[in-house]
Amino acid sequence: MHNSSPLSIRFHLLIFLALCILLQACASKKATQEIDAGPAPGTPVSVKESPATFVANLNPAIQGMKSYRELAPSIKKSLRYLSSKKDSAYAVKRPGLKITWGAMKQTLRRLEALLPELDKDPSLFLKNFAWVPVRQHIQYSGYYSPVVKASKTRKKGYNHPIYRRPPDLGRRGRYYTRREIEAEKKLANKGLELAWAKDPVDVFFLEIQGSGCLLLEDGSQICINYDGQNGHKYKSSGRIMREKGLLKRGDIFEQRQWLKDHPDRVNEILHENPSFVFFKLEGTGPTGAMGQVVDGWKSLATDPHFIPLGSIVAYGVNRPDPKYTTFPHRGIGFAQDTGGAIKKNRIDVYCGEDAKANYVASFLDAKGPAWILVAKD
Q1: What DSSP line would sit under 73-127, residue for residue?
Q2: 173-227 pLDDT per residue, tens
Q3: What is the DSSP letter of 40?
Q4: Residues 221 and 121 placed together within one structural domain of the fold
Q5: Model pTM?
Q6: What is the CA radius of gyration of the chain?
Q7: Is residue 313 part of a domain?
Q8: For position 274, which CATH number holds?
Q9: Rounded to 5 degrees, what angle do the CA atoms 303, 256, 200 make?
Q10: E strand segments, the chain
């Protein structure tokens, strides 16, 4: 048998270590590219910019599209929702904004007709629509569709129930609190368990997002959507943990890491939020308040008394980005969802379900401009 010399062994060991470092670097670069994929950043968004500046900097690639033609499915969803509305009735009637349902339908149809021409001539946005500014600017946040490891039956490692809507919810005022449901097991063994999750923290953040997917052991996924809430006021985990002096930044990434590092204190933190969300299984994807599946970077959650469902909204914000710190995001969106915490001049952008969506939704908290588009006569 041939014996290698110590020099040869060291040489081969160095080669092996170099390959390991190279592979690790490639993997890290790939992971970053998964989040950073897209165009280079352009001009930062200003809360005071004009519609002309906004349109001059529009780029469908920012919304993950190759062409404005890809707005068509979102437009059709809004038109389906508006089809039952009386044209002469007001969708919103408040100081500074009065729009009938008929005007909103006309606006959506105008945009639909212009889609083949917008790539070549984005100035059509200015020529065909009145841009009604949302006063006081918009406070932007984001939401996404998390994936939660779960089982259809309770078994070792899958002990945390995800509940369907109880039949008596809404008939007895405020329902059981989170502590009563999870610690005192007020709903246990009543046939309300939709599935069993591995991690209660994952389920808590699923509640915050309002929809997501369950990843089953066989690799298949089931979509899950919001189906009611217990009537108690929501208190954010970030606020709870900041009050206890447990966080430095307060973002969701830091919250998750702290809860992962302190499993013995998870219930202490989560049970201070009395709000609790119930779900239903739906195989079509995350569904908004219109009853339609929401679309990444196109669907927006708004206060319907402020920005009515069905509105076309030109929205802009400098969103967080792991490579550039912030990234100017200007898009053409559609008010297609609502949320308990979405009041007045706040917009929650649906970011999708990939790594970038998770990152942006976790960190987005910034002001920016917004306009409601209304077709000109």
Answers
A1: HHHHHHHHHHTTS-TTSEEEEETTEEEEHHHHHHHHHHHHHHHHHHTT-TTHHHH
A2: 789 999 999 999 999 999 999 999 999 999 999 998 888 999 999 999 999 999 9
A3: P
A4: no
A5: 0.77
A6: 24
A7: yes
A8: 2.40.240.50
A9: 85
A10: 90-94, 97-100, 129-133, 138-143, 147-151, 160-163, 193-197, 211-215, 221-229, 277-281, 299-301, 312-321, 325-337, 346-350, 366-368, 370-375
User: Residue 219: which region, alpha, beta or left (left: phi > 0; alpha: psi -120 to 50)?
Assistant: left
CB contact set of 256 (below 8 Å; sequence gap of 6+): 201, 205
Query: Residue 128: CA atoms inside 13 Å, Cβ hemisphere, count?
Result: 19
| Cα-Cα-Cα-Cα dihedral sign, residues 139, 247, 327, 48 | positive
The token pair that represents 248 in the structure block: 């430095």
Q: Are both 262 and 313 inside the same structural domain?
A: no
Q: What angle do CA 227, 239, 351 make, to 5 degrees?
A: 50
Pairwise CA distance, residues 93 & 374, whole Å = 14
DSSP 315: E
